[in-house]
């Protein structure tokens, strides 16, 4: 090895170290340093953001914490009909709350309550992660009881208000509050402030309302119930949802045992206590409040959604649109058997009444057999719609965007969805070619699905529905429109009533609203009245209404009252075959039924069904499938009695046209179209049919070119005319020719007659086709009388003797013959009258010569009284 290539071990290691990759220890150090740097940057940035948000936090006052201000709700006439909050609140001092109550609350809501300084760092971290992963929305817990007190005092509890800024401000105010108040004071304020379902605020109030006892006497199972209700008071109310309430209560008991607040024996005893043990019946005041509870729930939701105010604590004056009389009638119809026979107590129902011109919600019915305030409000809950969605998802868009007439033809035939799933009609039959009016009135599924999936664009359907306040999600559970949305979807009764109201209001839609304005305690007015928008063309609204009037007319024996014009649509949801088999229900059983209808004043949607499929089903056998129609009539009749109920006026954008039924595309009736085949339908102006149907014949006109000539030499009349052409070349044309009093049917364009009647003849000609006859064309021709030949006398010559002899012989023979003939006549007749003389014979012969026309049988055939054989035969065929 050369000297220059020699290298010491030390130099070799140095060289290898320089060329190789960094050692693992240095890489690890770099990662740690990078992580620390990023963490410090996040902390610094987070701290800066926290400081920025905290600087804008509102001031927390004693009034905010105590919250003594009540909120008044005013009806449509400006009268107070409900007071929320302050007046229904019992305050308890710290020493009145038993340990079991505070232990239950901390166990389930904030186990480190007595250790933290007002915030839970772990919870804040979880909230920050939730903010990043949920597009700016805070999800999950983490708030301490102190933070919850701050939120109840100065912030709203809606999901829209749960932002990172709000969380930062809550934390900042919680830190301040912990420095100013003791844990005992904070817990006492919190227990006095939390909502306990309905119009009950504070645990001390709940103890009196629910159990009729002071809060100091609460037992473990009662304290656990109240602690569990803090998360979702109406959901976990023992009146509204006893099963859920027990489940939540038992969870609290379990955590209390794990935390050592109670023994296992005490826990078991509390578990075994029925959820309704010791519960009081609702008071009369609560029963009165139940009448308006569904409406009040919607009011509170709207105020919290549209403002940052808390109706329970902010001391507001809320101007609502409630019609208290209508609301009372809705409640009575749903919660008694005075108006409708519900068959059993498990059947549920929901009602939404909307004023069509304004969108104001006049009444809501959240359910039947209501027993608790702030219970389930089915009038605003999403339900499967059935066929009530068809005017919204299919027929409305088809008229709006495709300008379909109410006559537009569609074939009802065997059909499957694009994925191959077969679809059937309610009766399992097919009607062939029908109009969209017939398809909607008879609620045919297959024609509806064909229009939706084959003729409409999905963006057209989506635009139409969103303009009516119907979001595609959750209308379609898939989050996008699917083929089955032609005949079904997901909507609430309130959405249904408000969208149908646009049909009644010339296409104008107003978002349904219960609150017109809110006045704060300092006099600030917040207007919550939404704008009215043109959601569809007036022709769409009118034409859909005109079709739905036929539906209401078909069911007038139930929904009809007086002469009030109204329109409506039924809807039915269905069990799958698997569900019917599993539940053991008959084939005609259905889970729910709808009726949505409207007049020129109100739109009313009614849903009936069961909260759980296992609770029962609706059927025609017991009349339960007809319940929505009965409920509709009882309510709509009541609210319509003191208002003018006018009919809808056809706008100028719509024309009414009579067409021949069955033509596709639509055609005007022909002159011979039977009345039974004529239908009057509505068309968008400018799309009316102009072509006339030839199915029953075209308009026949008089033939042209009619001429008549008489040939005196041949005693012949000739008639000619132009060939008549029909649009339908396959149809046969015949001609009806009348000459004088004689009528002949021919197929050629000429006719000849020998020895025609004499005198001035009128000749008429008409065309027959399609089993009808057109107008006459006519002309005249003169046929002169035949001239008489003059009589000529033969010259008298004297016969010669030979001739005379010859004549004598001849006369003798004749006389002999005459004698024989006379003899025979005498024998036959027994008449002895002698034969006439030669003179008599000559006179008779002479008479015949004087009147040749009378005795000549050939001449008799030319008289007007007796037609010749050819004419007689022709007339006989014409009669046949």
Automatic annotation (TrEMBL):
Question: Low complexity composition bias: which ranges?
Answer: 858-880
Tell me which residues make up the Penicillin-binding protein transpeptidase domain.
350-621
A Pfam family hit: Transpeptidase
Q: Where does the record place the region Disordered? A: 1-22, 770-880
Bias-annotated ranges (Acidic residues):
785-829, 837-857
Q: Which residues form the Glycosyl transferase family domain?
A: 79-256
A GO-annotated cellular component: outer membrane-bounded periplasmic space
Q: The organism sits in which domain of life?
A: Bacteria
Biased segments, Basic residues type? 11-20
| Catalytic reaction(s) noted | [GlcNAc-(1->4)-Mur2Ac(oyl-L-Ala-gamma-D-Glu-L-Lys-D-Ala-D-Ala)](n)-di-trans,octa-cis-undecaprenyl diphosphate + beta-D-GlcNAc-(1->4)-Mur2Ac(oyl-L-Ala-gamma-D-Glu-L-Lys-D-Ala-D-Ala)-di-trans,octa-cis-undecaprenyl diphosphate = [GlcNAc-(1->4)-Mur2Ac(oyl-L-Ala-gamma-D-Glu-L-Lys-D-Ala-D-Ala)](n+1)-di-trans,octa-cis-undecaprenyl diphosphate + di-trans,octa-cis-undecaprenyl diphosphate + H(+); Preferential cleavage: (Ac)2-L-Lys-D-Ala-|-D-Ala. Also transpeptidation of peptidyl-alanyl moieties that are N-acyl substituents of D-alanine
Could you provide one GO biological process annotation from this protein's UniProt record? regulation of cell shape
Listed A to Z, the keywords are: Carboxypeptidase, Cell shape, Cell wall biogenesis/degradation, Glycosyltransferase, Hydrolase, Multifunctional enzyme, Peptidoglycan synthesis, Protease, Transferase
Q: Which GO terms describe its molecular function?
A: penicillin binding; peptidoglycan glycosyltransferase activity; serine-type D-Ala-D-Ala carboxypeptidase activity
What InterPro entries does the entry give? Answer: Beta-lactam/transpept-like, Glyco_trans_51, Glycosyltr_51/Transpeptidase, Lysozyme-like_dom_sf, PBP_transglycosylase, PCN-bd_Tpept
Query: Which family does the entry's similarity section mention?
Result: In the N-terminal section; belongs to the glycosyltransferase 51 family. In the C-terminal section; belongs to the transpeptidase family.
Return the protein name. Penicillin-binding protein 1A
Q: Which organism is it from?
A: Alkalibacterium subtropicum
User: What's the source species' lineage?
Assistant: Bacteria, Bacillati, Bacillota, Bacilli, Lactobacillales
């Amino acid at each position: 090895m050369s000297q220059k290539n020699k290298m010491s071990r030390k130099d070799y290691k140095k060289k290898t170290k320089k060329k190789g990759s960094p050692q693992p220890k240095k890489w690890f150090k770099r990662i740690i340093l990078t992580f620390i740097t990023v963490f410090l940057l996040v902390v610094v940035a987070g701290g800066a953001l926290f400081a920025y948000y905290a600087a804008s936090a509102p001031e927390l006052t004693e009034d905010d914490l105590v919250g003594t201000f009540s909120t008044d709700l005013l009806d449509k006439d400006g009268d107070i009909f409900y007071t929320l909050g302050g007046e229904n609140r019992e305050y308890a001092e710290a020493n009145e709350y038993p340990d079991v109550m505070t232990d239950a609350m901390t166990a389930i809501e904030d186990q480190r309550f007595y250790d933290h300084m007002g915030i839970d760092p772990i919870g804040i971290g979880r909230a920050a992660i939730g903010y990043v992963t949920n597009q700016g929305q805070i999800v999950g817990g983490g708030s301490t009881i102190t933070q919850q007190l701050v939120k109840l005092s100065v912030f709203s509890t809606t999901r829209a208000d749960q932002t990172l800024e709000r969380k930062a401000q809550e934390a900042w105010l919680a830190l301040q509050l912990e420095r100013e108040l003791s844990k005992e004071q904070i817990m006492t304020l919190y227990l006095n402030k939390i909502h306990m379902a309905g119009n009950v605020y504070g645990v001390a109030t709940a103890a009196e309302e629910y159990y009729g006892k002071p809060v100091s006497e609460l037992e473990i199972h009662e304290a656990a119930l109240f602690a569990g209700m803090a998360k979702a008071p109406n959901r976990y109310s023992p009146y509204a949802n006893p099963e859920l309430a027990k489940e939540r209560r038992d969870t609290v008991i379990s955590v209390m045992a794990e935390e050592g607040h109670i023994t296992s024996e005490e826990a078991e005893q509390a578990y075994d206590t029925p959820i309704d043990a010791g519960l009081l019946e609702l008071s009369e005041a609560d029963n009165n409040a139940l009448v308006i509870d569904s409406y009040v729930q919607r009011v509170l939701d709207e105020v919290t959604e549209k403002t940052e105010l808390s109706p329970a604590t902010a001391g507001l004056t809320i101007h609502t649109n409630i019609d208290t009389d209508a609301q009372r009638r809705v409640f009575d119809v749903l919660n008694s058997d005075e108006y409708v026979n519900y068959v059993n107590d498990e059947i549920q129902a929901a009602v939404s009444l909307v004023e069509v011109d304004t969108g104001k919600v006049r009444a809501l019915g959240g359910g039947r057999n209501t027993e608790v305030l702030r219970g389930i409000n089915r009038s605003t809950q999403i339900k499967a719609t059935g066929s009530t969605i068809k005017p919204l998802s299919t027929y409305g868009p088809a008229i709006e965007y495709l300008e379909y007439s109410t006559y537009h033809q569609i074939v009802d035939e065997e059909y499957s969805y694009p994925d191959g799933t077969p679809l059937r009609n309610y009766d399992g039959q097919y009607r062939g070619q029908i109009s969209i009016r017939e398809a909607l009135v008879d609620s045919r599924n297959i024609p509806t699905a064909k229009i939706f999936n084959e003729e409409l664009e999905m963006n057209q359907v989506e635009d139409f529905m969103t303009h009516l306040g119907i979001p595609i999600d959750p209308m379609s559970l898939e989050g996008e429109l699917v083929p089955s949305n032609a005949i079904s979807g997901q909507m609430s009764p309130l959405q249904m009533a408000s969208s149908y109201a646009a049909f009644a209001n010339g296409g104008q839609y107003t978002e349904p609203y219960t609150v017109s304005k809110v006045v704060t305690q300092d006099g600030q007015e917040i207007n919550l009245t939404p704008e009215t928008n043109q959601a569809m063309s007036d022709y769409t609204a009118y034409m859909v209404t005109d079709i739905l009037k036929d539906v209401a007319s078909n069911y007038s024996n139930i929904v009809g009252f007086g002469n009030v014009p109204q329109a409506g649509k039924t809807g039915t949801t269905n069990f799958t075959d698997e569900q019917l088999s599993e539940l053991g229900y008959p084939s005609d059983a259905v889970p729910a039924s709808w009726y949505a209808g409207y007049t020129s004043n109100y739109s009313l949607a009614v849903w009936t069904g069961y909260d759980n499929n296992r609770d029962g089903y609706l059927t025609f056998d017991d009349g339960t499938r007809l319940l929505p129609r009965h409920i509709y009539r009882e309510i709509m009749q009541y609210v319509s009695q003191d208002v003018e109920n006018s009919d809808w006026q056809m706008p100028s954008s719509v024309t009414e046209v009579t067409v021949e039924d069955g033509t596709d595309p639509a055609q005007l009736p022909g002159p011979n179209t039977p009345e039974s085949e004529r239908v009057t339908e509505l068309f968008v102006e400018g799309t009316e049919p102009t072509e006339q149907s030839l199915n029953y014949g075209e308009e026949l006109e008089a033939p042209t070119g009619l001429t008549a000539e008489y040939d005196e030499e041949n005693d012949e009349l000739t008639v000619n005319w132009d060939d008549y052409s029909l649009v339908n070349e396959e149809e046969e044309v015949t001609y009806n020719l009348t000459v004088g009093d004689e009528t002949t049917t021919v197929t050629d364009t000429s006719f000849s007659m020998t020895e025609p009647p004499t005198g001035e003849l009128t000749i008429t000609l008409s065309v027959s086709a399609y089993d009808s006859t057109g107008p006459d064309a006519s002309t005249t021709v003169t046929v002169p009388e035949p001239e008489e030949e003059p009589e000529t006398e033969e010259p008298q010559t004297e016969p010669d003797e030979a001739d005379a002899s010859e004549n004598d012989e001849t006369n003798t023979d004749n006389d002999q013959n005459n004698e024989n003939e006379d003899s025979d006549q005498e024998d036959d007749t027994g008449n002895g009258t002698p034969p006439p003389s030669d003179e008599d014979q000559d006179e008779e012969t002479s008479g015949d010569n004087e009147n040749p026309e009378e005795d000549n049988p050939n001449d008799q055939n030319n008289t007007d009284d007796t037609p010749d054989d050819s004419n007689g035969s022709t007339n006989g065929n014409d009669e046949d």
